[in-house]
Amino acid sequence: MASSATTDAGGEDQHLTIPNIKVQQLPHLLHTLPSLRSHPNPLDANPFFRPSSEFYITPNDVVLRHILHGASDAPGPRLAYHRAGPRKAVYFEPGHVRAAIVTCGGLCPGMNTVIRELVVGLWDLYGARHIFGVEAGYRGFYSGEPVALNPKMVHDWHRKGGTVLETSRGGFDLARIVDAIQDRGFNQSIPCVHLNLLTLRSKTIRASTAESILLFVRPCPRHGTVVRRCALAAGTALLLAKSTSLPASRATWRVYIIGGDGTMRGMVEIFNEIKCRKLNIAVAGIPKTVDNDVGIIDRSFGFQTAVEMAQQAISAAHTEAESAVNGVGLVKLMGRSTGHIALHATLSSRDVDCCLIPENDFYLEGRGGLLEFLGARLKENGHAVVVVAEGAGQDVIPRSDEAHVEEKDESGNPVFLDVGRWLKSELKKWWARDHGTELFTVKYIDPTYMVRAVPANATDNLYCTLVAHSAIHGAMAGYTGFVSGPINGNYGYIPVEDVARAKNRVDTRDHKWAWVRSLTNQPDFEKR
């Protein structure tokens, strides 16, 4: 059985046929701008590269979505995505690139590394020399002047936590975003193209932390410095590019959005609005959420650093619990809709007695409940450690009023009740009720800001470099409506709608969750 893709990653018409492989079609600028001219890739002349016939990615280079299959599975096409990397042809002249970077929302390990690698990649790989940072979040587009960035300035940013450009939060106004793009207008008589790169960082819908990038390419009046001012949704970033080699009515911008699942959904909205207005704007993205809840990709950057820091908090909780009579160490970790950080930190530490995640409901009282389990563990060992993801137990925590159910934060995420403090209170009530005057201690640790604000570790730093360069290569090659990220260890380009629909929740029926339960010996919390 064979499947085909009729358009390659570079937009050339070609019939791609691979037995039993269905290659997901990737939009390209040539689909809407067929007369757009290509240019030789500047990497041909880059002294640090010696491109060979195998150097550039071709239409036949794909990454399989799934690599594990049963021998008895029914035959059929296997889904695949185009592999990320440099193409032999590009659709923007590097000398006409102008970039700006901004960070918004909450912090995450790797933010500064992504900024650094975007600056260095644009500068060293493609010769861009006009790159700017916007301070204090997207509000800085309206209230301040952009800061010129270059490789020398950002050379050590990967060693720093947080974001050197500073950050803020805000709301989302789709019409305002697209109006701001449309109202700028184009001057077709000016043959200068500007590529403005804007990087935004934020928490997203369902509380996934997101990094976002916005790139514009637009005409420059007399080569003046112009930074696009655009209000973006929390967790949404854009990368826009416009080619002035075409008439203004057919000019195209390129948009890159980097963020989590909510950001990807926002990217789809922006892309659909742009298409509805027929503005010929191309959209791309880089997925990022510290909770690791974006689907299809292997993981998001910052996740492994978060697990590493969470493990340190668990170690401290274990020491506190072990040093007290009937001591309980309670650690609340990030993870609103998924429990990946809690799960991986539990498997790594080997000190956890019970791991509570959003994907697995739990209850306190009765047979098979948390309190019965902890009572037995304290009787056996004299101490216990409980790890809980912040999104766990939201259905069992009493709410004071209906208004709280609908409460949202500045990024539009539902406001969760503090499961850590609630558990601490319930544990103390339980012990006082059932054990009288016996000694009992609960040490509660919430390392959220310690996890978010640290520099990325070596693994995440490498990830940030590869995903940033993948985005740059895809942008220069004319891709649109795609997301870059690792799939089964290889970087690929994924249609953004696929990513927006995909979820990466912990599967409590698979081996990994079984490993957690075998390690902790915790109950399954299924009432019988």
From TrEMBL:
Cross-referenced InterPro entries: PFKA, Phosphofructokinase_dom, PKF_sf, PyroP-dep_PFK_TP0108
Q: Which GO terms describe its molecular function?
A: 6-phosphofructokinase activity; ATP binding; metal ion binding
Domain (Phosphofructokinase) ranges? 98-187, 256-473
**At the top level of its lineage, which domain of life is listed?**
Eukaryota
Q: Read off the Pfam families from this record.
A: PFK
Q: Which UniProt keywords apply?
A: Allosteric enzyme, ATP-binding, Glycolysis, Kinase, Magnesium, Metal-binding, Nucleotide-binding, Transferase
What reaction(s) does this enzyme catalyze? beta-D-fructose 6-phosphate + ATP = beta-D-fructose 1,6-bisphosphate + ADP + H(+)
Its protein name is Phosphofructokinase domain-containing protein
Which organism is this protein's natural source?
Answer: Salvia splendens
